Structure formats: structure tokens, C-alpha cells
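User: quick one, fold this
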Amino acid sequence: MERYTFTVFTPTYNRAYTLPRVYASLKAQTFQNFEWLIVDDGSTDGTRALVQHWQDGQLRIDYIWQENSGKHIALNRAVQRARGELFLVLDSDDACVPEALERFLAHWMAIEPTERQRFVGVTSLCKDLQGRLVGTRFPTDIWDANSLEYYYRSRVIGEKWGFQRVDILRQFPFPAIPHTYIGESLVWKRIAKCYQTRFVNEELRIYDVPPNGYRAWRSSASGRAVGAQILYQSNLNEHLRWTKYKPWSFVLSAIGYCRYGFYLRQSLKEQWRGLQGWAKILWVLCVLAGWGIYWVHDRHDRAHPECTEP
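Assistant:
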């Protein structure tokens, strides 16, 4: 079986109208030792025919169709299928500069070989369609840290983009729960307990920023409750030692854990049992706020079902 330096993974769902941006970016890459692995999460818009047409061209394209289950399920499947050493997620409406893969590899090889086993990958900056930096830069042009330091100690904000080693991703799969949304930070933070990332101040991804400045998860709160509560529970049980750097982040995690627990019809005793150590104390302090937010939003969802998607 042929092996590659990179597996570029694109999860897609009814994005036949944006996938040509990804295709054009990959065709233009100055480094071509990669496969393009597409997992189609149940598209009905002609995505399959479009990709089959491209498979007759220069790119090595591996296409998988699955029943609609969610990006995290597609990601698990892609990691197991990948034939590359390094795994790079390029979303179905994204683009990147022609030198992106070449620059990523250069930064990776610049890490001393004896040190490279301590690293999971390299993360870069993003720019918008007008060439403006998205978010802020890293503290230094080459910054070695783990993702927990990035999330909790740094003041860096905005979209970032990077690759991870396939062998490490296979050790940290996403919870295989379909039809919910599970934030990718769940896995990146767990990896950060064991591995470093090299962050570089180089703009390699071209990010299509929506007019309102963010990409909303268009789903009812009850529809994303399982994945959201898993993420908040992980923050509270696994990363509470970082509270001193960003205390409000953990207060919000405790409130979110309570709120989505109520959506899942969990009793207070069940919520209590799901937490460990000091996280239980924080939960007690936040449970009334969690109940109040649940009550307000649940009433809104019931009154305006047209505002959300299942």
C-alpha cells in the first residue's frame, strides 16, 4: 500500500458548491506527496459525482461515503484509513496557500530528530480572503508549547490551522456518538497532556470568515447536549489545575455541564456522580445558574423550533 507524508482530510456534507476551492488549493501545492481523503457525511447534492470526476485527475483522492453521523465520526474513520504520516484537516469551504504543505513539512523537519517524538504536530496562522490575519499571532515566531498552555495561559485568539501525527491521533479517538456535536478541543487537550505542538507565525490557511464573524452550530441545544456535556465534563475533571489562569472558563464549563445535564434529563445526583474532586464544589456553586440558562433556552427552543436544525 502506498504511503504518503500527508493525509489531507476533508469532511463534507452537501458542500459540492464549496469543494472546488479545496480542490484548487490542493492541485496548486508545491509539495505533492499527499493523499486527499474525503469523508462524505451523507451528502445528497451531487458531491459523489463531483469527486469521482476529480479522481480521474492528478490528485490521489480516497472518497468514503457514510450515513450522516457527524464530523467527529468522520474524523475517527479518516484517521484509521489514513495512509499518511501527518494528518491535516482542511474543511470543505477552506483554501490554503500553494506552499502550505511544503512549509508545514519544513517546520516539522526543523525540530531536532531526537526531540520530534515529544511533538504531535505544527500549528500555523490563518488569513481571510482579503489577506488579513485572522485573530492574533503567537507569542514568538516559533513557540513550542502544548495545547493546554495555548488554551489557558496564552492570550492568542482566532482560528488556527495545523497537522497532527497519525499514530498519535489513533490513540485518542473521539467518542463514537453519532448525531451530536463534539468539539475538537476535547481531543486536542487530552493529547496536550502528553505531547507538545510547534506553533509558527506563518499564515498558511485561507479562512472564509462569515459575515457575522463566527460559524454558529445550527442545532437545537437538546440536539448538541450529549457532546457539549462530554466536553464540559472533560474540562472539569481533567484540566481543573489550569483554573488560576482562566477561572471564568471553568465557571462557564460548570454552568454548561449543569445546563446540558438538564437537557439530558439527568438528576442532580447523576450530575454529581459524573464529576471528580474539586469539580464537584464548582458544580454546586454553579448549578442554579445552569438551571436558569436551561430553563430560558428550553422555553425558547420550544417556542421557536424553526430557528434550529436537528
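User: anything notable?
Assistant: The chain is about 40% helix and 20% strand.
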